[in-house]
Amino acid sequence: DILVKVLSEDYAEPLSQVKCPVELVWGDNDTAAPLVVAERIRDALPNGAHLVVCPGAGHLTPMSVPNELRAAIERLRS
């Protein structure tokens, strides 16, 4: 049910207003929000986004791939 809701929600308008750099850290094994959701977000952002796909990671990226998440934060700070 969550997947159906997430995939059918439309965030095009708010995403089109984002002006800052965006880092997306996504697990390729995320069943709550599949990789296609990240790709749609990236494509909807006016300036795109840097998408890091983490092999084997699921939905809880801070717990399963903390180093990749930290690296994304550091990229935004530099």
What's the total helix number? 5
Cα shape: flat
> Main sheet: which strands, in order across?
1-2
Radius of gyration: 13 Å
What string gives the helices and strands in order? Answer: HHEHEHH
Bin the strand percentage. 5-15%
Helix content: 40-55%
From the N-terminal CA to the C-terminal CA, the straight-line distance is 39 Å
Low-confidence stretches: none
Class per helix and strand makeup: alpha+beta
If you average the pLDDT, what whole number results?
Answer: 90
Biggest sheet character: 2 strands, parallel
Question: Care to count the β-strands?
Answer: 2
Note the main attributes of this structure.
78 residues, 2 strands, alpha+beta, 5 helices
Structural account:
The protein is of the alpha+beta class. The chain has helices at 2-8, 12-16, 35-44, 61-64, 66-77; strands at residues 23-27, 50-54. The chain has 5 helices and 2 strands, in the order ααβαβαα. The model has no long low-confidence stretch (mean pLDDT 90).
